[in-house]
UniProtKB/TrEMBL annotation:
The lineage of its organism: Eukaryota, Viridiplantae, Streptophyta, Embryophyta, Tracheophyta. This is Hydroxyproline O-arabinosyltransferase-like domain-containing protein. It holds the Pfam family HPAT. GO terms for molecular function: glycosyltransferase activity. InterPro entries: HPAT-like (IPR056508), HPAT/SRGT1-like (IPR044845). It comes from Forsythia ovata.
């Protein structure tokens, strides 16, 4: 799966101020948003959450940030050993068998439960995932009732009109009203998400129950479900390409805000990408399904793009500073 394009960003949010006292430099920007991270209790999810939370804490109070509180929404139904390290609310998974092995179907149900039971001070919520790293301070990209979302190149509602129409009837409007997004990353008003979340859950389950839809959308089914649910409520998102970058396809960090390390990064020792073939040097989160990566991962060879180098350095910084890293 190939991702094209470099991301241009928000010049007005670039911080030219350095070396000033914290109280002067502190961002006086938009309304705060609460960071909500859905997760499981699997080792693979845990180590990613720990790195993600480390960088949240580093970026939260920097100039340019509108980050508020943080919650790991743990949809395992029971507490785990990270409860004291990361602020966590435990919610129930779907009834056994309902996800049919597609674990992310638990995500909308987790949000429904969390929104019902939690006291969230902030007016806005950022829906985030374990394999996100904050690489620059994140401002509130939403504008009033218009949430902000990252446009995914592989979410194509118009090209899948026949299937989308099963869930988004013609009387609701053109299929182009369905944004090319998933639920994450999205910054959205809490009151709007409270309306969308139950619809998102129900559309997800209906899509999974429909063999044609399940086959067509595969692992991005739940993303399409969020896009359709939002459109059913008349919600349009501000599409921000600078919201996130995805190595190895996006080669520069620039002024983007989140690194999403979902793709494997494989290179030969000349620094040439060998995508689809295990490289002489590689970083792939799936290499660490049963436990965390070791501290001090080797850096990429010369010639590898800055985004990949920075990703590995950020992982190494987090693992060097998180207490008890190797015991997880």
């Amino acid at each position: 799966m190939h991702h094209k394009g470099s991301h241009s960003g928000s010049e007005e949010l670039y911080n030219p101020v350095t070396g000033m006292p914290d109280e002067v430099r502190r961002w006086k920007g938009g309304p705060k948003f609460h960071v909500a991270l859905t997760a499981t209790d699997a080792p693979y999810s845990k180590w990613q959450c720990r790195i993600m939370y480390y960088w949240y804490k580093k970026m939260k109070d920097m100039y340019g940030s509108d980050m508020g509180g943080f919650t790991r929404v743990l949809h395992s139904g029971k507490p785990d050993n990270l409860m004291e390290e990361i602020p966590t609310v435990v919610v129930d998974p779907l009834p056994e068998g309902l996800d049919r092995g597609y674990i992310v179907l638990n995500r909308p149900w987790a949000f429904v439960q969390w929104l019902e039971k939690a006291t969230i001070e902030e007016e806005y919520i950022l829906m985030a995932e374990p394999d996100h790293i904050f690489v620059n301070p994140l401002p509130n990209l939403a504008h009033g009732d218009h949430p902000a979302a990252f446009p995914f190149f592989y979410i194509k509602p118009v090209e899948n009109e026949k299937i989308i129409r099963k869930f988004y009837p013609e009387e609701k409007g053109p299929v182009a009203n369905v944004d090319p997004i998933g639920n994450s990353p999205v910054i959205i008003k809490k009151v709007i998400l409270e309306k969308i979340a139950p619809t998102w859950m129900n559309v997800s389950l209906r899509m999974k129950d429909d063999p044609e839809t399940d086959k067509a959308f595969g692992w991005v089914l739940e993303m399409y479900a969020y896009a359709v649910a939002s459109a059913l409520h008349g919600v349009r998102h501000i599409l921000r390409k600078d919201f996130m970058l995805q190595p190895p396809w996006d080669t520069e960090i620039g002024k983007n805000f989140i690194v999403h390390y979902t793709y494997g990064c494989d290179y030969n020792m000349k620094g040439e990408l060998t995508y689809g073939k295990i490289g002489e040097w590689r970083f792939d989160k799936r290499s660490y399904l049963r436990g965390p990566p070791p501290r001090n991962l080797p850096l990429p060879p010369p010639g590898v793009p800055e985004s990949v180098v920075r990703l590995v350095k950020m992982v190494n910084e987090a693992t060097a500073n998180i207490p008890g890293w190797d015991t997880e």
